[in-house]
Prior knowledge:
By secondary structure, the protein is an alpha+beta fold. Helix content is 16%, strand content 48%. The chain has one domain (3-158): Hypothetical Protein Pfu-838710-001. The chain is built from two helices and nine strands; from the N terminus they run E-E-E-E-E-H-E-E-E-E-H.
Amino acid sequence: MPLEIERKFLVANDGWKKYVVRQSTNRDGLIANNNGHKARVRIADDKATIALKSRRIGLVRTEFEYAIPCADAEEILRTMCDGNVLHKVRHFVIHKDVTWEVDVYDDILKGIVLAEIELMRPDQALQIPDWVGAEVTSDPRYRKINMRAERLAKVLNAHP
């Protein structure tokens, strides 16, 4: 069974930028969210995937991710995501021979920068770079759906 074991952090400063080895432009669309289980489509540069993810138990969840044609992903984003599409640039950053992913969001989440690290096991030792801030793995405020809802509420309240 494919597992995703991931920790998520705020980014404290721009120190990560000098360690970027590559980047990709991403559009993520939420197709469905059911009590923590979700279906998501992503276009990263010229590759598209669809993913099914279980509810998280601690740091772990089941994840099934499959390549799909870009044209299909474009149609899914357009017709099934009901505007729940996020834009970001994902930067791959090396620290102590481990690859971190730093996501710099745009559009509705502009200004949010988060660092993620995928682990092999939940108790894996991790050396935290000095550019990494507070851990937000278990903080519901940093789930994409909640960040988007909060930003939308602010926009709506600013324009009554």
